[in-house]
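Fold this: Flagellin
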Amino acid sequence: MRINTNAASLIAQEAAANTTKNVSSSLEKLSTGLRINKASDDASGLAIADKLRTQASSIGQSISNGNSAVSLTQIADKAMSEQSNILDIVKTKLVQAATDTTSQEGRAAIGKDVKKLLDQLDNIAKQTNYNGTTLLQASAAGTGSATSLTFQMGEKLADTIVTTAGVQANAIGLGVSGLRSAAAAGTSAGGFDAAGARGFMTTVDSAINTLNGWRADFGSTQNQLESAIRNQMTQQTNIKAAESVIRDVDYAAESSNFNKQNIISQAGTYAMSQANASQQNVLRLLQ
């Protein structure tokens, strides 16, 4: 029996220190809701969870990109819908001007209406934009064709959706600038008589078909975007769930572990007191 070194007490102290560390770790997990609070908790798990979190965040931004792109396509479609209405009215007025029951004065009035309608068609092409990007022609000042737009719909370089290039929904692009000039000149120049009106009816039909083609392209792009958004939302949900399995604490299991460690801690404290008390027996030998 030795008194200089109490091996039993040292062992009990070491066990108590480890148990205290385990209790503290368990309390940290229960208070934060995370199974992994630092790299030492699970180094490989932390690396995987961080990668999943980055992926989920990137997909979240892709969903936001997609919603913005859908808004863009809707703006373009609504604008072209109004342009289509204008062309419908122009066609109706040309039919009216093409009949010989319409007087020259009537045709002159119709010409003025047609000219103003086509001016408004150009105004729509000029003004339609999303966040400063002109959608129906090259720019607010440029009447050339609009360039294609690229929407980033994923975390990879190739995860993009591209709009159709070449949209030029103005009088020049739709081929009705000649009609506007004739309408502006009126009947005095001889370009807006009954025969001329009949000829321009085909021109307007072609313009309507061209415009409908561009609307269809934007509609297809919108459908593609909405499908991509739904897919991204599903992916994001699954990735977040996978991250949660790795990073988040299971409260039922961790509560059970905390209770176990707490009981062990109390038992260790009792064992330490017993180990220290056992040395008191040496005094009896000296009596």
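Helices lie at 7-32, 43-98, 104-127, 177-185, 194-247, 251-278, 281-286. DSSP finds seven helices and four strands in the chain.
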